[in-house]
């Protein structure tokens, strides 16, 4: 971890097109708890409250950088956000949207965000603030919250024009799992038949790293098949249920599994599905379909299932 007593500086990544370095001063002694940088990625930045089952978003593409900090000592969320907002505006950033807890949409808004998990980023569901801003083609969002002893800040920033890096994938022997994933990612499954006949269907081919909610699989056939089925059956409603492997504690995995379901919900909406007919839930590691003793089994358990909730 890196310690910042007065401030922090975020410089451009190598390969990015020209954009002014961003320097912000955090309110108090701060420790960087996590940092994720993804070249050639996209971010759906919320620009409104959770309303009618969805959040208005703006899609930004480029190098997505997420950074979280813990601020020592008790501090209010207003004291966390206000000085950061002032610094951003002084640096030429335009605030596009800002909200506090209930005005944001409370629980649903928070779990529609792809935030880092505990203990790196803590969010009190009764006290958080959110801000979205833009400067030219660059976008940035801030989420702040607190515990009794500390404040927490997460920044998500997208810089366009960065050179994308190759994504390295290591092959996994699915035979090691007691119950390997069924289906082939490259084939569109008959999602509708499974939902109508069995009441549920696993969305195969989704790629979640351990401890992460970011959906890494683009153009997934199962997602498109589900979006098409929802469009063809406007009276049907579904719940997306996220699952995790058994790494970590239950409370963290319950939150993570719901974040995974929320990520899939966002992808379905982007594919044309009606978000008002889709809810996102999570059960953590409580419903495995494979042994957690192997990497292949843990990979199989990191999944999202669609559940038919219509009763007629």
TrEMBL record:
Residue ranges of every copy of the OmpA-like domain listed in the record: 195-312
InterPro entries: Bact_OuterMem_StrucFunc (IPR050330), OMP_bac (IPR006664), OmpA-like (IPR006665), OmpA-like_sf (IPR036737)
Entry keyword set: Cell outer membrane, Membrane, Signal
GO terms for cellular component: cell outer membrane
Signal peptide: 1-19
UniProt keyword annotation of RNA-binding present: no
Record's subcellular location: Cell outer membrane
Protein name as catalogued: OOP family OmpA-OmpF porin
């Amino acid at each position: 971890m890196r310690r910042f007593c007065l401030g922090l500086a975020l410089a451009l990544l190598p390969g990015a097109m020209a954009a002014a370095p961003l320097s912000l001063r955090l309110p108090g002694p701060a420790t960087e708890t996590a940092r994720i940088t993804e070249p050639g990625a996209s971010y759906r930045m919320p620009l409104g409250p959770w309303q009618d089952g969805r959040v208005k978003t703006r899609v930004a593409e480029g190098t997505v950088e997420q950074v979280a900090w813990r601020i020592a000592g008790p501090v209010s969320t207003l004291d966390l956000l206000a000085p950061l907002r002032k610094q951003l505006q002084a640096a030429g950033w335009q605030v596009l949207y800002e909200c506090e807890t209930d005005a944001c949409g409370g629980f649903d808004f928070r779990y529609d965000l792809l935030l880092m998990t505990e203990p790196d980023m803590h969010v009190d569901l009764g006290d958080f603030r959110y801000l979205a801003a833009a400067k030219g083609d660059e976008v940035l969002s801030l989420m702040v919250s607190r515990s009794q002893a500390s404040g927490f800040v997460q920044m998500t920033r997208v810089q366009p024009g960065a050179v994308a890096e190759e994504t390295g994938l290591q092959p996994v022997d699915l035979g090691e799992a007691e119950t390997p994933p069924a289906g082939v990612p490259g084939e569109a499954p008959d999602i509708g038949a499974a939902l109508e006949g069995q009441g549920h269907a696993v969305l195969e081919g989704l790629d979640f790293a351990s401890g992460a909610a970011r959906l890494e699989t683009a153009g997934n056939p199962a997602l498109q098949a589900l979006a098409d089925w929802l469009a063809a059956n406007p009276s049907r409603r579904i719940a997306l249920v996220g699952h995790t492997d058994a790494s970590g504690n239950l409370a963290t995995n319950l939150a993570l599994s719901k974040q995974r379901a929320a990520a899939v919900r966002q992808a379905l909406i982007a594919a044309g599905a009606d978000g008002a007919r889709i809810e996102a839930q999570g059960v953590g590691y409580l419903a495995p379909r494979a042994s957690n003793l192997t990497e292949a089994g843990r990979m199989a358990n990191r999944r999202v299932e669609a559940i038919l909730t219509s009763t007629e």
